[in-house]
Amino acid sequence: MILSLTTVMVACVAPCDEVATEMWQVAPGTSEKPWVVPAQPSEKTAAVVLIHGLYVHPIAPAKAKQPWLRWWQKPKTEIVTALAKDFDVFSFAYSQTLPVEEVARSAGLRDAVANLRKAGYKDVILVGHSAGGVVSRLFVEQFPDAGVTKVIAVAAPFAGVKIATVKVGYPKVQAPFVESLAPGARVEATRANKTPLGRDVQFVSVVCKLKHADTDGLVRTHSQWPEDLQQLGVPAVLVDTNHFTAMEHPTAVKRISELAREKLTRWGPDETEKARKELFGEPKPMK
Predict the structure, then answer these.
(1) I want to staple 67 with a disulfide (CB 3.0 to 4.6 A). Which of 93, 103, 123, 222 is the partner?
(2) Of the ranges 2-6, 88-92, 139-143, which one carries the lowest mean pLDDT score?
(3) Tell me, what DSSP letter sits at residue 284?
(4) Phi, psi dihedral angles at 123 (to 5 degrees)
(5) Any idea what DSSP says for residue 220?
(6) pLDDT by residue (tens digit) across 151-199?
(7) Distances (CA, A) of 189 to 19, 38, 166
(8) Radius of gyration for the alpha carbons in the chain, expressed in angstroms and rounded
(9) CA-to-CA separations, 175 to 11, 61, 63, 67, 167, in angstroms, rounded
(10) End-to-end CA distance of the chain
């Protein structure tokens, strides 16, 4: 059955504790069919996969059980058009009834990456916005040999977001996903993590920030580039925009596209310290 990209592809959701996922190719072309490995490889050798964040369904809770694309993941949007100059672009969607950890370890995401490598792409780049950035990080930590070569996390709440502690505004079925983004949940997950981010995967945090504030309007800058990533030398790139326009703001789109093309290297202590002062106006805390 073929549905348009403005509708949902209802994936198998039985048993109920599985994450329903789907992936579409959004450039080149605008196929309404979920992507499958083509008979002939693409002329391009690198693929970008766009991964969305939280999508609250207060009026229609059943939609949380289905994978829905966000508008910015669809063909011909600013971010897709910019990336399509150098990459084949795909958009990945997932149901939101389980914690982010379950999304990251889902068979759907593993299969999506494996099939891209099978299709001949030498580089697979995950671009995750908000919770999508958390999912992307968890994926490369848990599956370092899956084939992802780079992660660009945009406005990602790695250390959690306070609004996720609020118990209203979303349907009960989405509670596990929302609550897994709370500061306490993320701090505990980081503490218990047995597979920290390796150096083989290029990684960057795009920190979104409002002027004269330590937040993008939803996620604090300290959460977007937390201490554990600083210690690993993960670079941070500042973009002056709010959380909700991060994937359409011209400066953000330009910078994300540049980062997708560039080779990313880990920072040393001096570079990290300089960025701390620029982002937070503070030196590295004493141990």
Answers:
(1) 93
(2) 2-6
(3) P
(4) -125, 135
(5) B
(6) 999 999 999 999 999 999 999 999 999 999 999 999 999 999 988 899 9
(7) 19, 38, 19
(8) 18
(9) 21, 11, 14, 16, 8
(10) 58
Alpha helices in 145-248 (DSSP H): 175-179, 183-192, 221-224, 227-231
Domains detected in the chain: 21-279 (3.40.50.1820)
The answer to whether the Cα torsion of 246, 248, 250, 254 is positive or negative is positive
264: its two tokens: 């990313």
Cβ contact 88:25 at 8 Å:
yes
- Chain position carrying tokens 């690198």: 46
DSSP 125: E
* 260, two tokens: 């997708």
**215 secondary structure, DSSP code:** B
Of residues 194 and 98, more confidently modeled: 98
Return the structure tokens found at 50. Answer: 């766009």
For the record, the structure tokens of 65 come out as 């059980």
Cβ(51)–Cβ(92) below 8 Å: yes
Distance CA 122, CA 51 (A): 19
Q: Which of 98, 167, 108, 107 is nearest to 131 (CA)?
A: 98
What count of residues does the chain have?
Answer: 287
Structure tokens at 61: 């809770």
Element (H, E) at 274: helix 269-280
What are the CB-based long-range contacts (under 8 Å, 24+) for 219-224?
A: 219/130, 219/155, 219/156, 219/157, 219/161, 219/243, 220/159, 220/161, 221/279, 221/280, 222/159, 222/280, 223/157, 223/158, 223/159, 223/160, 223/161, 223/183, 223/186, 224/153, 224/155, 224/156, 224/157, 224/158
Which helix (H) or strand (E) segment is 48 a member of? strand 46-51
The one-letter amino acid at 255: R
Tell me, what's the pLDDT at 285?
54
